[in-house]
């Protein structure tokens, strides 16, 4: 059994698309906790950049997936999920300043 790279692949597509939509389209109303009276430009720019960075890290993990041995497949998978959860938690905490 080889390391499954489908989760990072789907996440890469999702976060790249959403990050670009936020960055270019300024669609901040899609974000949870969006407040109309705050800085829309800053929020769209910051969260869009973070989502594009998550997509880039997912791409790196996709490329590294075939190099990882079968014994470390669970470490790869759960490590990726932990990294994603911590990063998204950080994004939601820091987005409150906008």
From TrEMBL:
Q: Which UniProt keywords apply?
A: Membrane, Transmembrane, Transmembrane helix
- Organism's domain of life? Bacteria
Pfam families xref list: DUF3784
Sequence intervals crossing the membrane: 6-25, 46-68, 74-92
Q: Which InterPro entries match?
A: UCP037672
Q: By what name is this protein known?
A: DUF3784 domain-containing protein
What organism, scientifically named, is this protein from? Heliomicrobium gestii
Q: Which lineage is the organism of this entry classified under, starting from the top rank?
A: Bacteria, Bacillati, Bacillota, Clostridia, Eubacteriales
């Amino acid at each position: 059994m080889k390391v499954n790279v489908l989760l990072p692949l789907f996440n890469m597509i999702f976060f790249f698309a959403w990050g670009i939509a936020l960055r270019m389209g300024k669609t901040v109303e899609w974000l949870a906790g969006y407040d109309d009276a705050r800085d829309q430009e800053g929020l769209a720019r910051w969260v869009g950049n973070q989502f594009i960075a998550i997509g880039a890290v997912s791409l790196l993990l996709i490329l590294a997936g075939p190099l990882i041995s079968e014994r470390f497949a669970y470490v790869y998978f759960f490590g990726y999920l932990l990294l994603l959860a911590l990063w998204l938690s950080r994004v939601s905490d820091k987005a409150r300043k906008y």
